[in-house]
Structure formats: structure tokens, C-alpha cells
Design a protein that fits this description.
about 325 residues, mainly beta, Immunoglobulin-like, 2 domains, eight-stranded antiparallel β-barrel, four-stranded antiparallel sheet, 4 helices, about 15% helix
Length: about 325
């Protein structure tokens, strides 16, 4: 046998040994020795989600996408009709009938409205309350075109100032709930709203004031208020907000262009009860929302707005 043929024979024998070794390894790790398991990998683009079922020893797959739709494919692609928060579940079943289920939380095409309300799957809506810690962007402003900081107040507002500094700590407990269908409710823990002192005095008299601020220069208080049933809200993006302002003579009307706003049915409000019920939403994220709320803090100019409170609210978990 020539040297060339001998090398070729050795190559064939080596390949056969590798093949036998591989087959032996597969047999020793047969399906009965592999525990049934399942995991999910997903890729989200807009409302389209590509799912991949990462399973061992599974012979069938059942997907529940969290919006009422299902699939029996191993690696399905699903398009959600609405953005929102969903829980997608995968149930993997083996040939002997045993099964295992895993799930993944999805945030699909989150718009500001979904961030505000929790989306179509939030049965109880999304609830917000004034953040006690405050943020670096919280401050007491003048009701001018630039919402410039008011010289008489600390900038930014330190954490807990409405309680420790002004004696109105109860306002950090009030909760405001937005629902995807446009309904709105509030839970005022002590039966009184965070409010303007001038507003309460002029509309309800001294009897309407439950707790005046310890420093009345800020024009704040809590005033008795009964929330209305079946209330609604309207959220608008890139709209113009016109409010009254002592800084805009001779019309005393000031317009903020291309902003986001919240408005409410009846006498309902968000955060601060005063003459101006519309709120400017400056920023909204999954867990925080920063808004500007206008207030008439001087009896000499009421009901014209003199100031604004730029405050951060947090989502209630």
C-alpha cells in the first residue's frame, strides 16, 4: 500500500471514530436525561415582537401574548394592535405530557398617553402622587413666559419642603388615577386638596381652608374638596396652552406653544386646585411625571396667575 493510500485510510478511520463518538454522546444524553425547560428571547420593533422559544425536550409550544391572541409556533412573530404593557407566556410540553411555563414582561410602543395611564392592560389605571423627595427640576416659578424661578423660594425645592417647611405634608399622600378609557379619579386622604390660599378664600371663604401654610407668602393651603364621580380627563400633545398671567399686559394672556396638557371635566384638577385647572406636562416617564401648575397667589391680582409650581409626581406601585 502506498504512503498516499495509507494516509487516506487513516483519514477515513479517524472520521468514522469521530462519528461514532458523536453518536455515542447523543445517545448518552437522550431526551429522557434532559430536563424539560423553557425560556423566552424577544425582539421588539414598534408594535411587532419576534419571539424565540428557547426550550429543551419540548415537542409542542403554546404562546399567550397577553392581548388575547395565541400561537402554537415555536418562534412566532406577533403584532399588537395597541401599545402597552403585556405579559407574554410560553408553555412548553414534552412528549410524555409534562409541561413548563415561563413568561416575559413587554413594554410595547409606549406613548406618553400609555405612560400616563398604564395602557389598555392596566385594569385599575395608573396612579400618581406628589414626590416627597422632589427632583432637581422642582421649583416655585413666576407665571411668566420662561417660568423663571421665584426669588423668594429655594431653587430647587428641597425634599419634603411642603411638609417640614410649610406644614402641608398631607399633600404628599393624595393620589390621582388616570385610566386608558379617559376616566379619572382622585383619593384625597384627608378630604382636602392641595390648593391656593387666595383661591379658597375668594371662592369658599375662610371656612373652605382646612390647613393654611405656615408661611403664607407662598399662598398655599389645603382646602376642602369633594371629588366628582364619573370624572374624565383629556391629554393633548403639541398643543397651545393659554393661561392668564400678570406678566402679559395688556391682555394678561400668555400662550405656551407646542406643549402637552391635561384638562379635566367639571371642577376636577390634578395636583393643585386653583383658578387655572389646565396643567402643562413637561416630561413623562415610566415612573415620574413633571408638570407645571399655575396659581394666583396675590389677592391684588386674582384671578390672574402670578406663579406656577413645577413639581414631580411619582407612579404609585
Amino acid at each position: 500500500m502506498t504512503k498516499k493510500n495509507l494516509i487516506l485510510l487513516y483519514g477515513v478511520l479517524f472520521s468514522m471514530m469521530l462519528s461514532l463518538s458523536s453518536c455515542s454522546s447523543d445517545d448518552s444524553a437522550g431526551s429522557e436525561d434532559i430536563p424539560l425547560s423553557a425560556d423566552i428571547f424577544q425582539s421588539v420593533v414598534g408594535k411587532k415582537v419576534a419571539f424565540q422559544g428557547l426550550t429543551n425536550n419540548a415537542s409542542s409550544w403554546t404562546w399567550d401574548f397577553g392581548d388575547g391572541a395565541t400561537s402554537s409556533e415555536k418562534n412566532p412573530v406577533h403584532v399588537y394592535s395597541e401599545g402597552g404593557y403585556y405579559i407574554a407566556k410560553l408553555t412548553a410540553t414534552s412528549q410524555d405530557g409534562s409541561s413548563v411555563t415561563t413568561e416575559v414582561n413587554l413594554a410595547v410602543d409606549l406613548t406618553p398617553y400609555i405612560l400616563l395611564t398604564g395602557g389598555p392592560t392596566a385594569a385599575d389605571g395608573k396612579t400618581w402622587r406628589l414626590a416627597n423627595a422632589h427632583s432637581s427640576g422642582d421649583y416655585f416659578a413666576n407665571a411668566d413666559a420662561g417660568l423663571t424661578p421665584f426669588d423668594g423660594a429655594p431653587y430647587p425645592l428641597p425634599g419634603g419642603i411642603l411638609g417640614a417647611g410649610l406644614g402641608l405634608g398631607e399633600v404628599y399622600q393624595d393620589e390621582y388615577t388616570f385610566h386608558y378609557d379617559g376616566s379619572y379619579s382622585m383619593d384625597l386622604k384627608d378630604g382636602a386638596a392641595f390648593s391656593g390660599l387666595v383661591y379658597q378664600f375668594l371662592t369658599a371663604g375662610p371656612a373652605g381652608i382646612k390647613n393654611p401654610s405656615s408661611d403664607q407668602d407662598f399662598g398655599l393651603c389645603t382646602g376642602y374638596f369633594t371629588p366628582e364621580p364619573n370624572a374624565t380627563f383629556t391629554y393633548e400633545e403639541s398643543t397651545d396652552l393659554t393661561v392668564s398671567s400678570v406678566y402679559a399686559p395688556p391682555t394678561y394672556a400668555l400662550t405656551f406653544s407646542g406643549v402637552s396638557t391635561l384638562s379635566f371635566s367639571g371642577d376636577m384638577f390634578f395636583g393643585l386646585l386653583d383658578f387655572e385647572r389646565k396643567v402643562m406636562v413637561q416630561e413623562i416617564k415610566d415612573n415620574t411625571m413633571k408638570v407645571a401648575m399655575f396659581i394666583s397667589a396675590s389677592p391684588d391680582y386674582a384671578p390672574l396667575n402670578t406663579h406656577a409650581l413645577v413639581l414631580t409626581f411619582e407612579a404609585v406601585k
